[in-house]
Amino acid sequence: MNLSRRELSYLLVIKKYNDQGQLAKLSWVAKQLNISPASAYEELSHLEGKGFVKKNRSGIEITDEGKKAVDNLIKAHRVIESLLVEIGFSPDEACKYSTQFDFAVPEEIIDRLHKYLGEPKRCPHGEEIPITTS
Ligand SMILES: [Zn+2]
């Protein structure tokens, strides 16, 4: 299932706290994203409905499904960047344009593009391209 950019920003904040060994608090997420706790709550309920996060009284946790969705979108972003640089865009232009449609490109196309490009391990900025399994 594809993630929107906005959903990605939520998942990345939650994952950051989880990676530090703690559950994310609603108020922290709202503050990090500069939005009201009410909007954050609404979006988190939506993400929970999609199975990307789990909420309980002590905080919010990203699920394996959520992590997979994050990796898929990051991979899509970086594969498209690699392609755009290949056809003559600068890395910064490639990043800007990729952000506009990376979330909409089906996983299968990204996988084929990745192969087509010779399975690069890093994007034009030197960031690692996640290895995903579908
Ligand atoms: Zn980028």
From TrEMBL:
SMART domains: HTH_DTXR
Segments forming a coiled coil: none
Organism from which the protein derives: Stygiolobus caldivivus
Domain Iron dependent repressor metal binding and dimerisation: 63-130
GO molecular function, one term: transition metal ion binding
Name under which the protein is recorded: DtxR family iron (Metal) dependent repressor
Membrane-spanning parts: none
Highest taxon listed in the record's lineage: Archaea
Pfam families: Fe_dep_repr_C (PF02742)
